[in-house]
Write a structure and sequence with these properties.
The complex is a heterodimer. By secondary structure, chain A is α+β, with helices and mostly antiparallel strands. Helices cover about 35% and strands about 25% of the residues of chain A. The longest helix of chain A is centred in the last third of the chain and has 16 residues. Chain B is an alpha+beta fold. In chain B, a hairpin with a 6-residue loop joins strand 5 and strand 6. Classes of the chains: A alpha+beta, B alpha+beta.
Chain lengths: ~80, ~160
Amino acid sequence: MLVLTRKTGEKITILDNIEVSVLEIKGDCVRIGVKAPSVIPVYRTELLESVRSQNIKAAGVAPESAAVLNSTVVKLRSAAAPVVK
Amino acid sequence: MKTIEKTRKIGIETARFGRLEADPASFISFNEGVYGFPQARNFLLIETAKAGDFRWLQSVEDPALAFLVTDPTLFYPDFRGRVDREHPLLAALADDYQLLAIVTVERPTRGVTVNLAAPLAVHATRREGRQLILAQGDLLTAHDLVKDYRALLARTLQGKV
């Protein structure tokens, strides 16, 4: 991994069009600004990780769950139906 | 004019549904894969009468991989607007794209959650899909689907929706 030391207000550039700036350092928090073309997505890493692990969990859903879940939803809907116009 | 070709079905092995036959033209391709499964590129959307509003997105390449999905706007009516706001390019496609949300069921009767932080957007005619990541603090990877639906129906009864 490339490790660089930067002060508040300093930047690094990735390729020629992605700019990462250190905006503010306060205690153990660093505010970072990322300037990148809109086609380049930038996410907090933990969000990506939670999407990945949720997908992995979802991939293990048992086949019979679909019908059970649908009957739960249908029951809820029909319980609410009389008043819904 | 397009030449009319006979549909050519191919066999697809699946862990949940046995061997299926499908026309490759009906596949939905995820050219960037789905997070956690970068190698899974082609999926088949399977509807069954018993599953109603829920469908399976079955991987063509991996027999064991299938996601239970649903149209999130059935349960969260304002969800489409949230996606459009963050993805103006999709909003421009208007009705040409469809949203699917992945559902996780830990046990058949409880622990049912829906992922609103990372819905799937599928282009209706090109049949290309992509998993979007919505960086909106209140959209989570696991929303309690049954609880939220009950609340939505209650609000509907009170005429608030």
